[in-house]
Amino acid sequence: MDPPITSCCRSPAAQAHVSPIVVDIDECAEGKHYCRENTMCVNTPGSFMCICHTGFIRIDDYSCTGTV
Ligand SMILES: [Ca+2]
């Protein structure tokens, strides 16, 4: 006799529960962001943001300044 198949993940019912997973890179943690001085890198799904520190003025998407 063949032994019983012990696969947990090959039944159609199990596959139906697999949902698409957004593969995101944490650019902040991996140092792949381009945030410059006076900003804080914030990871977002598929991208990242550079947030100005409190009191600093945004120059562009990646940098802020404390002096005008
Ligand atoms: Ca990201």
TrEMBL record:
InterPro entries: EGF, EGF-like_Ca-bd_dom, EGF-type_Asp/Asn_hydroxyl_site, EGF_Ca-bd_CS, NOTCH1_EGF-like, PKC-binding_NELL
Gene3D superfamilies: Laminin
Domain of life: Eukaryota
Record-given protein name: EGF-like domain-containing protein
GO cellular component, one term: cytoplasm
Domain EGF-like, chain residue ranges per copy: 24-65
SMART domains xrefs: EGF_CA
Keyword Cell inner membrane: no
Organism: Knipowitschia caucasica
Pfam families: EGF_CA (PF07645)
Keywords, ordered alphabetically: Disulfide bond, EGF-like domain, Glycoprotein
